[in-house]
Structure formats: structure tokens, C-alpha cells
Design a protein that fits this description.
single chain, alpha+beta, Ybab, Chain: A, two-stranded antiparallel sheet, 3 helices, 5 strands, rod-shaped, disordered C terminus
Length: 105
């Protein structure tokens, strides 16, 4: 179906579906690392915000300060979330036509 000005809705829908599939693949492949406490806690997160790895320096457990360890885990996870959001925002902005990429900034 063509609209005035040559817009082809079917073609636009096909392109949108391809962009969505590409974005989903990039989210699945994206990995970000974040740490807290100078590397005492390190997490790795996928683009869909799923934690895939958590490393805790054994020395942190010896200290016995559970509250501090909990805070470091939360800080590392929150930082990974921010990194995923920034990475995906950048990828999405790069996929949009010029002028639309700044809608998400």
C-alpha cells in the first residue's frame, strides 16, 4: 500500500521488524562488567539486564562485614544496569533515522 509521498507501509513494517530482531540479537550478545569496592565485587550483565556472573574476592568474606558486601553487590549491579542502558541507548540511537536518535537522550 502506497501513501502520498511514496510511503510504503509494508516496507516500513518489514524494516521495523528487522530493526527489532537486530536489537534483540544485540541485547542477547551484549555483556557489560561493573565492579565495586575497588574490584572486591564484580558482576557481568547481559543486555536484557540478566546477571550472568558474580565474583566476590574471598578476602571480603573473611572480613565478616555482610552489610558492606551487600552494598558492594548492589552498587556493582546498579552500575551494570546503567552501562547496559547507555549501551542500548547508543545502539538504538544509531539505528534510527537522523533527527530521531536524540528522542532518547
Amino acid at each position: 500500500m502506497k501513501f502520498p509521498g511514496g510511503l510504503n507501509i509494508q516496507q516500513m513494517m518489514k524494516q521495523a521488524q528487522q530493526m527489532q530482531e537486530k536489537m534483540q540479537k544485540e541485547m542477547d550478545e551484549l555483556r557489560v562488567d561493573a565492579s565495586a569496592g575497588g574490584g572486591v565485587v564484580t558482576v557481568q550483565m547481559k543486555g536484557n539486564h540478566e546477571l550472568v556472573a558474580l565474583k566476590i574476592d574471598p578476602e571480603a568474606v573473611k572480613e565478616g562485614d555482610v552489610e558492606m558486601l551487600q552494598d558492594m553487590i548492589m552498587a556493582a549491579a546498579n552500575e551494570a544496569n546503567r552501562k547496559v542502558d547507555e549501551a542500548m541507548k547508543g545502539k538504538l540511537g544509531g539505528m534510527l533515522p537522523p533527527g530521531l536518535g536524540n528522542m532518547f537522550g
